[in-house]
Amino acid sequence: MEAPRYYLTTPIYYVNDVPHIGHAYTTLACDVLARFMRLDGCDVLFLTGTDEHGQKVEKAAETLKMEPQAFTDKVSKNFRDLLPFMNISNDDFIRTTEARHKVAAQAIWRRLMQNGHIYLDKYSGWYSVRDEAYFAENELIDGKAPTGAPVEWVEEPSYFFDLSKWQTKLLEFYDENPNFIAPASRRNEVISFVSSGLRDLSISRTSFNWGIAVPDDEKHIMYVWLDALTNYITATGFPDEQETLYKKFWPASLHMVGKDILRFHAVYWPAFLLAAGLEPPKRVFAHGWWTNEGQKISKSLGNVIDPIELVEKYGLDQVRYFLLREVPFGNDGDFSKNSMINRINSDLSNDLGNLCQRVLSFVQKNCDASIPQNNGFSKDDERLIAQVYGVLPSLRADFNSQSFNVALERIWSIVSASNKYIDEQAPWKLRKTEPERMQTVLFTLLETIRCIGILLQPIMPASANEILNQLTIDPSDRSYSALNEEHCLQSGAKLQQPNPIFPRFDEKT
Ligand code: MSP
């Protein structure tokens, strides 16, 4: 049987600035999902990259007195370098300045034109460079975009996409595909936005140059959002529809985005695709925004969180865990030093770290550093093992609905059950009185830890590997198909010297 396919994407990041926690968060959520799907047997394509055209990037280059291409080369690299640093397992990295992308963006334009969805007119209205978006007079709040960004008056010849004709089709599409937009509250927002009527969309500009030329009319460059959204099919080889990647992976399974850019992905993008005769993606998930110690994150407040500093201070897997555990995915969340330290010291160090350390060092000392015998499971042993062998279907549902925090709570309930089990079974007491029973108890715990290690790989790949290495689990036996009795630990196998995996975080040291 062929493996199920899963194609997921991050937004492509504007190269006007250095990467911050918001970028790291979206990419991390995708990485966790990509890793989960691979371990669960899917054929995965995971794409990220940089959005390099438009006025915002052009202006940023100008400020530094750099040519836009040289500037984007430099800043794009910062985003690319962050990926290995955060242990991100993307399969491709796309830049909108690449030749493959220009071909795809122009091809989609031609299709829209051929299908009669583009016409030439004149745009006059407001434009926010920061949002790279058009606004009508009645949308402005105190003379600014609803995001608070400044707007400028634009009056120039422009091509338009006939978005106003897509209202009914989009509403039908949302209705037929109830999982297309998540979470549900965001879906309702989009539906009410579309229901209130759509205006035709200006899709070209003539007052600056940094972008992809409109086919057959070089005075115009394509609107940066039409250019940018197309990246998702560029990476599958479009416009070559015979290309294997395209056939295999389009339509995308999931576009992960922040709530601020949902409209572009859930309204414009499916309309462009339907108009071009292409299939829309299967799902768009809009996550929330982080604040820093209760305050909106902004450059002017000087409270931008640098993901590199965060990782250097707290540790990579600690940060990966925190970002996905602390806040129900989809909601806004607050980053605070205290909550970060609490998560590290309580969930990671006390619960998980202690469980592994207690069991592994006890086995090291009392079982000749090897996997003890299973002398027959009791009801309690069976209950613990059954919990960890049986958790995958629920986790699958969690990951398919991007409920990362729920998935982690579920795994942690097994960690807690294991800690409770040690205290109740008290192997240290059994050592003299019932050594055979002690062996079975330790066997049960090690087998549970093996499965917890396997389950945690998507979230904390390095630490999970460390757990599995200490148990000397062969790398080929670490996928989710090994979460069963058939792949159970072998008594007598030698264990590695245990190393504590999650030290407590102490501000002073
Ligand atoms: N270039 C566009 C996306 C084009 S996709 C075809 C863009 N880029 S961005 O660099 O400005 O933003 C990328 C992502 O970062 C967005 O999903 C946005 O929601 C996210 N975040 C920016 N600040 C954030 C927080 N403070 N918290 C969480 N995510 C935030 O938009």
Plain-language structure description:
The protein has 509 residues and is α/β, with parallel strands linked by helices. The chain has two domains: 284 residues, 3-Layer(aba) Sandwich (Rossmann fold); 151 residues, Isoleucyl-tRNA Synthetase, Domain 1. It has a six-stranded parallel beta sheet with strand order 3-2-1-12-13-7, sandwiched between helices. A four-stranded antiparallel beta sheet has the order 5-4-6-8. A three-stranded antiparallel beta sheet has the order 9-11-10. Helix 10 links the parallel strand 12 and strand 13. The radius of gyration is 26 Å and the shape is elongated. The N and C termini lie far apart (53 Å). The protein binds 5'-O-[(L-methionyl)-sulphamoyl]adenosine. The site of 5'-O-[(L-methionyl)-sulphamoyl]adenosine has 19 residues, from strand 1, helix 1, helix 7 and strand 12.
Largest sheet: 6 strands, parallel
Output the strand order for the largest sheet: 3-2-1-12-13-7
Number of helices: 19
Bound molecules: 5'-O-[(L-methionyl)-sulphamoyl]adenosine
Spell out the CATH superfamily of the largest domain: HUPs
How many distinct beta strands?
16
Which band does the percent of strand residues land in?
A: 15-25%
| Average pLDDT over all residues | 96
Tell me the helix content: 40-55%
Question: What is the CATH fold-level name of the largest domain?
Answer: Rossmann fold
At the first level of CATH, the class of the largest domain is Alpha Beta
Low-pLDDT ranges: none
CA radius of gyration: 26 Å
User: First CA to last CA: what distance?
Assistant: 53 Å
Derived from helix and strand composition plus strand pairing, the structural class reads alpha/beta
